[in-house]
Design brief:
single chain, 732 residues, alpha/beta, 8-stranded mixed sheet, 5-stranded parallel sheet, 19 strands, globular
Length: 732
Amino acid sequence: MSKFPASLMQQVAINLAINDKNDIRTVNGPPGTGKTTLLKDIFAELIVRQAKEICDLDKKNVYLPGDSKVGQTKLPDQISNKNIVVTSSNNGAVQNIVDELPQIPDKDVFKEVIDELLNVHYFDDIANANLNKPKYWGLFSLEGGRKENMNNIIDKLGQMVKKLQDENYQSDTDAYDDFIKQYNLVENRRNQLQDYANSLGQLQKWREKVQEYKITTVANGDILFSKLTPVLQEVTEEINSKKEEYQEIASSMENVRFRDRFFNKEKITQKRKKNEKLSKLKRVIEEKNAEKHKLENKIDQLQVESHTYARILNDEKLKEAMVPNYQRDFSNRDVYDQFEEETYWYTSNDLREESKLFVLALRVRKQFLYENSKSLIMAIVNWNNQDKKVKENQQQLTLYSWQWINFAVPIISTTFASFHRMFKNLPANSVANLFIDEAGQAVPQSVVGPLLRSPKIMAVGDPAQIKPVNTLDSKVISLIGDRIFKVGEKYVSGDTSVQAIMGQASQYGYYKDKEHQNWIGIPLWVHRRCLNPMFNIANTISYNNKMVLPSNVKEKEAKGGKLEKKQGKIGAGNWIDVKGVSQNKFVEEQARMLKRLIQKIVNNSNNPFTMDDIFVITPFKNVAYQLTKELKDINFIKYENGKPSNVGTVHTFQGKENKVVFLVLGASDKEKGAANWAVSEPNIINVAATRAKVWFFIIGDKKLYQSIGSETITKTIKAIDDYNRKIDSKSN
């Protein structure tokens, strides 16, 4: 429901997720490139398609007389095969996505669509129960997996049924017609866009033919075929010449005396030779006539195509929609950036109408549940009885029950650890559409069960961020893979992730390296979270400068200067060089500097930041623990579920963001090995830098970290220094 159309690669990923016939697809999304937005668009399309399938049903109440004996109504396959489950090895990721999806939008969304969404009341009273004020527009997504989470889902479904069967509940039979009307409007627009694409394809083919056949247009609109016409003329002349020759020979044969034709050996021989010559000429004439006919047909065809081309070229609407410059010089950075940002004809109005269609799809879903509330009751009963095996067909009943449950709550999430518990009684291919979030953090063995139960899977993640946490030593893993099963490190190693392996199986993607060894899934490149220097740090150390900073962010940075830097209107960053003696990586001097800087930021009236706008991140657990104790003195620490939520290790902050981030590196000369672990590869610095939207500061012993010889540190320092020189030059 965003006002902003998807960028080029987001559109590619969405289209493939919805329409591609392959079982496995992967999306490689650097931080801030819209992975969650991408998933929202895919989920919305699946829900719209379910609504269309419902509207196409002859009978909306799908209960059959025999269902009472079977014990469960079956949700039609064309509806259940669009159900959605989200999973991850990261518990925070599955919690965040189901919490974020149904939140009432507060910006960047069409107001009239928000109003319509709230008016649907997709069980929003159940979703917001026990909250001080409404947070969710509906009961759209819930966390499953663990027993208590599933009990919560079943409890909410019970409340849903009670509401649907209340005598005061208002049926909404107009929902189906209203949806179809909007669906046709959106579909007609999509067909129009497809016609544009087809027309542009025709134009491109015509341009190629113009080059191939040297076609030119004269003043009166006629076209000349500089290549074909001379050939046609030459063939025609050759045919005429051969015909004349044929006629001369044939005539000469007619003039031979009758007696000589049969008794004069010399004349007989000449006749035989002339007949052979005539046969040969006849074949040549036939071949040339065929060639001439082919050329004439080609010219006639091109004449027709030229009229089509002229019609397309004069189509005013198409002119407005045309994508300029088919041939682009991607060595020009501005051209590349513009290409990645392009949305190809997609307008805010298109998004508005599609958002309205999604809202109407929720109305259809709610009405369908009303007409099938008995089926939902049976689903709850059978799900609760799945371990009792009260019927011979209990596994089938459990599957049918799950399909109804997952339909009533469109998005249900679970961690890999809880996946088996949640689906232990379901057969293979029973989870219709599985989306793996933060797949770059997941170890390969964790996805075996989900793979067996899911016919269609999309993995979304970024191997350039935090690597998987393996409980086995990397040497043991290498021993198992290389020596026992003869499998290369690409597939079995301490660093291999679900994202990396599934990326190898994905048809669509690209090679990160010139050697064509490192294939990843569909890449997202337009980064909308961080200003500089954070953007340049990440882009340089992890993404081969492929990421694109949108033009609106560049415009904001173009206004840079010292005053804006102080006020925080554009990105700011620095390395604060602090040395000291360390105890288990903790440097007390760095903690004292951090406290002073936080207080300076929040107490400066020029800065728009509060303590809520700041994260403190470190590579090391003990440093996080000690910093938490130190920052309590200034009332900085915030807690969620009894744990600090604004101070912690880099691993705990992946997927989160804030305006200001401090990365406290810790360590001293005596712990050079630990320091090397933190920065030898770009992953930790990449994640830390891309948590920050506006300001990013590194606190650490600069000389120590430079001495390691890490390319990551060299590039990071250069990005920070280049940025500050740029800001200083603008303010002078």
